[in-house]
Amino acid sequence: MGFWRKLTDFITGEPDPFDCEGEDCGPGHRVDDADFAIALIGLGAKMAKADGVVTRNEIAAFQQVFRAPPDGAEVLTRVFNLAKETTLGFDGYARRLARRFRQHPAVLEDVLDGLFHIAKADGAVTEDELIYLQTVAEIFGFTAREFRRMRMSHGLVDSSDPYVILDVNPDADDEELKRAYRRMAARNHPDALMARGVPAELQRLAVDKMAAINAAYAAVRDERAAESR
Predict the structure, then answer these.
(1) Residues 6+ positions from 8 with CB-CB distance below 8 Å
(2) Helix pair angle (174-188, 200-228), 10° resolution
(3) What is the pLDDT of residues 158-194, one digit of tens each?
(4) CATH architecture type of domain 1-157
(5) pLDDT in tens, 44-65
(6) 91 CB-side CA count, 13 A
(7) Do the beta carbons of residue 96 and residue 48 sit within 8 Å?
(8) Which CATH number fits domain 159-229: 1.20.1560.10, 2.40.50.140, 1.10.287.110, 3.40.50.300?
(9) Which of 42, 61, 72, 180 is 20 to 30 Å apart from 6, CA to CA?
């Protein structure tokens, strides 16, 4: 069954494309089909509604995150318009994705990056939008420190903490620090996002993320080297 056919089935009440019959459907299973699309449509539309008004900038940002082929634009618009009427039900979308990708946090972070992109479209992220984002992050299983790291990567925190960016405790030894750096670099490298089928707008964000990760690792290593001297 084709990608856009699955979307059509979803909005007409046919079998739920999230139904994996108990499988842990991770990347490579159906990330590039209706699962990822519906996550962005449902959560993205409700993200746009989180501050009470869906603006043209938010719609444009959504379209950047998820660019439909010509024969799928009508279906995409229909699902988006249905979902943007209210934020009610956003947690259901989030829980479905959390169950589906619980072993693949990089995919869940890709979804959150898409939501951040929409939230920032008007030039400022409101308190209601931050609450929406934080709630989705919690449902996805991310910790408060991980959510703070995401906020940093989107320029929503005044100062950057290299340990937060690397997702490691300040008392970690050098080997643990190196493992944390490699883990974060592997997850956020632009090539990895491309392999996961992430939209171009978020691939560009990956370049900034990698620069921040490299800078954070260099800063910690320089600090520790200075202390040892």
Answers:
(1) 75
(2) 170
(3) 677 999 999 999 999 999 999 999 999 998 888 888 8
(4) Orthogonal Bundle (1.10)
(5) 899 999 999 999 999 999 888 7
(6) 7
(7) no
(8) 1.10.287.110
(9) 61
